[in-house]
Amino acid sequence: MRQILSLQGGMAAGKTTLAKRLQDALEDVLVVYENPYPLIEKRKQLNLDLKKEKDFILNQKMFIEQEVEKYRRLPDANIIYDRGPEDIEFYTLFYPISIGKEWDMEGQLKAELSELRACRSDAILYLDAKAETLLAHKQGDATRSRNSFGQAMSMLPYEKAWFAQFPTMTMLEIDKLDPQEVESRAQELLAKLWKV
What we know:
This protein is α/β, with parallel strands linked by helices. The chain has helices at residues 15-25, 37-45, 53-72, 85-98, 105-108, 110-117, 131-139, 149-164, 179-194, and strands at 3-9, 29-32, 78-82, 123-128, 169-173.
């Protein structure tokens, strides 16, 4: 039976680090990493401006379609998402709000959002961190540019509140935890989810 845990949290919270640690520590688990770069490149080629409604809608249609297709190809296994469908849904709904727009995403992307919501994870682990912790993580990691860090930070208050609505969400405050402690807490959650 397929069971999916989605790792969520602000940019530089340590989602990918945790996913890699869990992949190394656990047997019979498939980690699905976030890779937006091919679609970001396509967005550049199409010259889309996310501050324009029609361009944002086209961008989100591409991301949702990719996420739904990824979900359909998943094997019957224990899965860990580095972000995943809930993150795409959040961004679709709240990016316009974060830039002061009142676009009707629910209406204009009704069919796409419905498909995406059918792909939701069985459980969510939200890595909660203060802004200064995320900034310190960003500055301490030279392997990734995180060019959209400022924009991600502007969405953080919306993000935490939105993820809190999910009954399957566990929030883990990570400000005072090292990566090993975060991994240990995640493994406790997985033991309950996967009953291992």
